[in-house]
Amino acid sequence: MGEEQNASRRPIASRSSSWAIGTSAWLARTGVTPNTISMLSVVFAAIGASLILSTAHPIAMISAAISVQLRLVCNLLDGMVAIEGGKKTKSGPLYNEFPDRIADSLLLVAVGYACGFAWLGWLSALLAALTAYIRVFGGAVGLPQDFSGIMAKQRRMAVLTAGLLAQSLETLISASRWSLLLASAIIAAGSLVTCTTRTIRLARSLERL
User: Fold this and answer.
1) DSSP 3-state of 26
2) By the number of CB atoms within 10 A of the CB, which of 13, 30, 145, 207 ranks highest?
3) b/e map 73-92, b = 16+ CB within 10 Å
4) What integer pLDDT is reported at residue 2 of this predicted model?
5) Which pLDDT belongs to residue 6?
6) Where are the bilayer-spanning segments (predicted)?
C-alpha cells in the first residue's frame, strides 16, 4: 500500500522540510480536512487571477506571485495532512485533482488576457490540463503516475511566479507586458513538450506490460 501511495504522489523536496512537517501536523490536529485545504488552493488562485486581470501595478503583481505560492503550499499540505496526518478520505483523489485543474486554468487564462493574447492563456491552460490527464491515465491503466517533464506543475508555477515578479519591475519603466507574455509562451511551449514526452514514456511502458 505504501508503494502504491508513493507511485501516485508527486515527489516534492519541501515535504521533508521542518516547516511543512510542523504545519501539516498542526493542521491534522485541528478540524481542517485535506479536502478543505485543496479547495483553499482555488481561492488563492482566484485571488491571484483577479489581481493579474485588474492591474499591472507592481504591488498587484507581487501579491499575485504570493497567491501562486500560497496555492502551491495548499497543494503540499493537503496531501501531508491526508497521508502523514491520517485524515485520508475516499473522495480525496477527486479533491486532489479537480481543484488543481481549476487553479491552473484561473491563473493561466488570466495571464493570457492580461498580456493581450487570450488564446495563449487558454492554450496554456489546455496543455496544463493535458499533462495531468496523461499522468492520471497512466495511473488508471496500472502504471506509476509520471510526474516528469520540463513543465510539470511546480515548474509552471515557478515560471508564472518569475513572470509576475519580472512584470512588477517592468511596470515601473514601461506600460508593456512582455514579462507576462514571455511567461505564458514558455508555459505553453514547455507544457506541449511535457505532454509529448509523457505520452512517449507512457506508450513505451504500456508496450512492456
Assistant:
1) helix
2) 145
3) bbbbbbbbbbbebebeeeeb
4) 41
5) 52
6) 36-53, 102-120, 181-200
DSSP track, 2-17: HHHHHHTS---GGGGS
Q: Which residues contact 177 (CB under 8 A, 6 or more apart)?
A: 56, 114, 115, 116, 167, 170
How far is the C-alpha of 119 from the C-alpha of 13, rounded, in Å? 34
The span from the CA of 205 to the CA of 88, in Å, is: 29
Strands (E), the chain: none
pLDDT in tens, 109-135: 999 999 999 999 999 999 999 999 999
Q: How many residues does the chain have?
A: 209
Task: Tell me the mean pLDDT in the region 85-92.
Answer: 83
Distance CA 40, CA 103 (A): 10
CB contact at 8 A, 47 and 67: yes
pLDDT tens-digit map of 5-59: 455 667 777 787 888 888 888 888 888 899 999 999 999 999 999 999 999 999 9
Q: Which helix (H) or strand (E) holds 146?
A: none
Domains identified in the chain and CATH numbers? 2-208 (1.20.120.1760)
Tell me how far apart the alpha carbons of residues 182 and 116 are, in angstroms, rounded to a whole number. 12
